[in-house]
Amino acid sequence: xxxxxxxxxxxxxxxxxxxxxxxxxxxxxxxxxxxxxxxxxxxxxxxxxxxxxxxxxxxxxxxxxxxxxxxxxxxxxxxxxxxxxxxxxxxxxxxxxxxxxxxxxxxxxxxxxxxxxxxxxxxxxxxxxxxxxxxxxxxxxxxxxxxxxxxxxxxxxxxxxxxxxxxxxxxxxxxxxxxxxxxxxxxxxxxxxxxxxxxxxxxxxxxxxxxxxxxxxxxxxxxxxxxxxxxxxxxxxxxxxxxxxxxxxxxxxxxxxxxxxxxxxxxxxxxxxxxxxxxxxxxxxxxxxxxxxxxxxxxxxxxxxxxxxxxxxxxxxxxxxxxxxxxxxxxxxxxxxxxxxxxxxxxxxxxxxxxxxxxxxxxxxxxxxxxxxxxxxxxxxxxxxxxxxxxxxxxxxxxxxxxxxxxxxxxxxxxxxxxxxxxx
Length: 424
Fold this sequence. Notes:
There is one protein chain. It is built from 17 helices and 14 strands. Helix content is 45%, strand content 17%. The protein has a six-stranded parallel sheet with strand order 1-11-10-9-12-13, with helices on both faces.
């Protein structure tokens, strides 16, 4: 594990979502094909990419398949899943859908909040089936009041992971389709013979999924453009090296493109963390993935102060940020850009991934500077409401007419001026 000083760490920090022409060209081709040929195109791509033979009869997951999935999930795991669902749904239900209407002097202004009619949730099923992403995508939509929630997930070799199906059923999803990649995004965005189009698409995926979401934005709403997973850990001399190393590896095992960075004020800690990474890496089932990830995008940066560490955090805008210091609450006001913040040595990132409640679908690749964590707001719309009494319009009318005329929009001015004649 390489240890950097602040002055030479720039190459480690400079990483952002990058479009790749080869992948973008392939995505556009798939989107056009699905838009044109519908189900047949989706079936062809599923056969090509996931070795899944689909027809109109088995495209949508059946109740029999869901029942079989329940049989395959151990009771203890199902109970843990249900606890996580309760925590996550309760968390997303806190905000509520609050209208905001204010009436003053005959003028009512504000907004009302309405859920979208339908949402498509994408749950990855590639190198590791992520049933937790079902919970994190579906439950904020459910809390927002979305009536129709559709799940798209790959069926490698024809079968969806049992826990993914059970998670969807427990969250109340009634439509589950065996499709992944750009073809799934296309089906959700444009609709096919079997899949009715949705209003919003949310959920993480690989580069093809991300580029597809970017391409269909405008046809539908999207949550964000998410890239490979990442974690940044700010630690001082009080941190436990073994815990810091374990938290780095918890992200590194996701993907060879994931990145894990520690920023510390202690060179002694840096060296101990580096040694712990080597030791723990040898025991991981996904050791090769984690090793390649750390070689390409991992490292430890030694800085002089925690304030300097927070400056680096705000530059990177990491997906996950752990503040593992003596007084982590004191650093929180210094953090402007991060997807999710974990405070203290007993709040490792997997607590948020699976159980605590806040969502784990987060902005990556620096996009936390302008995207936010997936939440119920992604699945709602604010509609403006305006109501004037006659007296209020008479009072404001001359100003409105004057402004409309300044833009040479005579009909706009006339719509108000006609009404003002009543007071003459």
